Amino acid sequence: MHPRLDDDLARLPELLDETRAQAVRLLAGLGDRPVAQAPAAHRSAPLPVDGSGLAGAMETFTRRWEPGFSAGAGPRYLGFVTGGTTPASLAGDWLTGTLDQNPTSGLDSSAPDLERETAAWLRELFGLSPEHEGAFVSGATMSNFTGLAIAREWLGERLGVSVAERGAAALGPVHVLSGSPHSSIGKALSMLGLGRSAIREVDRLPGREAVDVGGLAAALESLDGTPAIVVANAGTVNTADFDDLRALAALRERHPFWLHVDAAFGAFAALSPEHAHLTDGLDEADSVCVDLHKWLNVPYDSAIQFTRRRDLQARVFQNSAAYLGPLGDDPDFVHLTPENSRRLRALPAWFTLAAYGRDGHAEIVRRNIALAARLGERIAGMPAYRLLAPVRLNVVCFTLASSPERVGELTSAITASGEAFLTRTVYDGVPALRAAFSNWRTTEADVERVAKTLERSALVDPPVPS
Ligand SMILES: Cc1ncc(COP(=O)(O)O)c(C=O)c1O
User: Fold this and answer.
1) Which pLDDT band, with edges at 50, 70 and 90, does 313 fall under?
2) Residue 252 belongs to what domain range?
């Protein structure tokens, strides 16, 4: 054995204790370190030839890299839609690396059954029926990709061709209809060989990101019976708007389409009694995308993909190899998602659900929703700002009242303050900012700190040119 490895093995308990102490120190400082920082220029170091052992690597990391990292797991990181890491999910993540299971084949371990149990718990959490079967993927983009891959196979089934065998070209042009598709849908269609231009954006309700069901019905009518894919939204990224899922599902009585729902974070609305109605009809979808590194507060990377057509899923993703054996009635995960080998991704989710249960996670969701509403009220009371949409769930979308074009400067000022991190967008043609609440640590005191930062950062209007 290489002497450095040999030394580390001999000192493993002590080294892991030091690593644990380092993690505890980092977590204790999460609320105090700059929430985000503009990345500094870094010159890459040469590849170590001899290496410095774990202690040396830790010293180098702590000096060179860790200070530049964001407090992405902290309470005032409100950019994108970003969850943190509950204590139990962190422990689950540590054990994931420790046990280093590959759960995709059912030949050697009970790990795949832990994934099945976790998928069933999540299905119940979101009010889906047992006809929906889940598989773990790395994030909502891959969950959308997987759902749309199954949709693609379904289109083939309707036309009497197997896309898995003959390729996407066998389908001819494909129609994907959606009101406000997330950017990951275009990426997925590109990867699937269907092309980004397959997306046809359908009219939205006035002043909303939700699709106009009448407009969608008309668009489907114009396809004249050609099978299509509809991508519905349960929680849009800008304003957390929801399509009327039940009304959309009912359109299948008149038109042939696969209903895929991007519920990356919106599925969690099912945990709040006042918001659960937003997810009505989710169960009727043919495929559903839910991210777990967002509102379940497990560490990156984790999401789940549900579908009612596991047979088609296995047709797309099956990995035929003599050593894997036949597919069987309950295919191993190797046959269900893009990866052949991967980590035991379910374990952090299993830990957090086992530790806090439905009620613990419902409390996080309800608190985040209340905090978003509170920030919305504070912003509505600031003359410098204008809300661009009602706060429907956990996202606050707003802009500078008199100079929206300066949102970029405002974003940089907020980031430079180290107090909060919010991300930019364009909503209905207006440059805007979003604050998305999905971290289990966030409290009212954090909202007040963010509000104060916004007050301080409000830019004075530029001088009127003479
Ligand atoms: C609605 C929606 N879909 C898909 C995604 C993509 O998620 P990921 O970055 O985890 O792939 C996001 C991310 O914010 C999202 O909000």
Assistant:
1) very high
2) 90-351
Q: Supply the residue whose CA is at minimum distance from atom 7 of ligand 1.
A: 140
Nearest CA to ligand 1 atom 14: 81
Mutate to test the pocket of ligand 1, among 143, 145, 185, 237 (most ligand atoms within 8 A of CB): 237
User: Domain with 303 in it: what CATH number?
Assistant: 3.40.640.10
301 CA closest ligand 1 atom index: 10
From 351, 372, 396, the end of a domain falls on 351
Ligand 1 binding pocket (C-beta < 6 A) is 80-81, 139-141, 182, 184, 235, 237, 262, 264-265, 291
Answering whether pTM is above 0.90, one says yes
Number of domains in the chain: 2
Contacts 24+ apart (CB under 8 A), 445-452: 446/75, 446/76, 446/371, 447/371, 447/374, 447/375, 447/378, 448/378, 449/76, 449/419, 449/420, 450/76, 450/78, 450/375, 450/419, 450/420, 451/375, 451/378, 451/379, 451/382, 452/419
